[in-house]
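Why Helix-turn-helix transcriptional regulator? Reviewers of the renewal asked for a concrete example.
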Amino acid sequence: MIEFRFAVGDLATTSFAYSPLQEAVFSLRCLHDPARYPHHRPWLRRIRPHLDHLDRDLLTALVSPWLWIPDFLTPRPHRARPGFAEELDRLAATPPDVVDADFHATYRTPQAIPPVVGRGLADPAALLDRITAALDAYWHTCLAAAWWPRAQTILEADLAHRGRVLAEQGAGALFSGLDDRLTWTPGLLRLSTRDSLPAPWTDVGIDGRGLVLLPTLFARGAQPLLDPTRPPVLMYPARGRARLSEEPPPVTDEALTRLLGRPRARLLMLLAEPASTTELAHRLDVTAGAVSQHLAVLYDAGLLTRTRSGRIVRYARTPLGDELCR
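Here is what the prediction returned.
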């Protein structure tokens, strides 16, 4: 059992965020154990031809055979929606002694460290430069264009849902909805560790540092990131992650198709959960411009809402749109 102790004001500083760097690093687990992540298989098949042109030996070595990852590769986000480039800059500033210590902690014995890492640890600063370059190439080759827009939409929808739960039902419903192993009583959040390895720390004080809740597409249950020198983080499985492997739904209601036309009817069916223009274009394999024109018509007709987050606009169905789809 891990207990997170909340003093007065700690719940108010608890926040949500997601991390593109964390998702990129966690996606490397798929290279070790594809069967563990069935929703990512279509994406994994698409990227396999590209992996041989990357620093594959090093990328694979960032994940141990038991799927542990050095902590420095998953830094706590400084804000709710960081960009990959800014997170990579923070990673590049990791002290060399932390790189060395985290690899040894991940692999547990020097003999288990892969040769590509073992040789690199003779100069941890140079190894960090190579890791940063490898992750940057992996992101732009395999993730940024097609995978991340869909993944980001799922993470954004999760954050919107959790915010509504907290506002309407309170902290108890919020935490229990993240994982059934989590229970909340005033001032105390408990995570059962019955199905996992014992944690090195079982009594965690928030102590004004703020607990960050991170949805991820690569977890089966809540997972704490605990280090007495770093603020606490609790990762949890993102809601709706199965949608990563979905094909666009067919439009089967001919009346809806005759009313709106097939492209707009299909878009309306897709928008049961919020999505951006880019995500919808990828899912339908059409241009973003074509999608944008249809979205504008559906929005003007009162069938969609739109919300802006930075430079990204996300659309979702209104109650009227829901009724039409039913």
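The longest helix spans residues 147-169. This is the kind of structural detail the renewal will allow us to pursue systematically.
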